[in-house]
Write a structure and sequence with these properties.
Elements: E1 5-15, E2 18-25, E3 28-33, E4 45-49, E5 52-57, H1 59-71, H2 73-80
Antiparallel strand pairs: 1-2, 1-4, 2-3, 4-5
Protein name: HypC/HybG/HupF family hydrogenase formation chaperone
Family: Belongs to the HupF/HypC family.
InterPro entries: Hydgase_assmbl_chp_CS, Hydrogenase_HupF/HypC
Length: about 80
């Protein structure tokens, strides 16, 4: 199964010409490429699939989706490699 998981951008940086960020997924942090979401900045919520932010979402949608994903714990753990706290 493939999931797009929402997370909040915490830090931005440039790595070899790529816009990279540390993104928090409700307690799990991952490095994410932001090149497909040029408007995303610190505090933005993005939907991430296989390490790439693919769209921005508002905070309420991100929180609602994370709630649903917590209810589907096995799918989230498979996608992120660890469960959401």
């Amino acid at each position: 199964m493939c999931l797009g998981i929402p997370g909040r951008v915490l830090e931005l940086r440039d790595e070899a010409g790529l816009r990279m960020a540390t993104v928090d997924f409700g307690g799990v942090r991952r490095e994410v490429c932001l090149d497909y979401t040029p408007g995303a900045g610190i505090g933005s919520y993005v939907v991430v699939h296989v390490g790439f932010a693919i769209t921005e979402v508002d905070e309420s949608e991100a929180q609602r989706t994370l709630g649903v994903l917590r209810a589907m714990a096995d799918a989230v753990e498979t996608e992120l490699g660890e469960p959401l706290p």
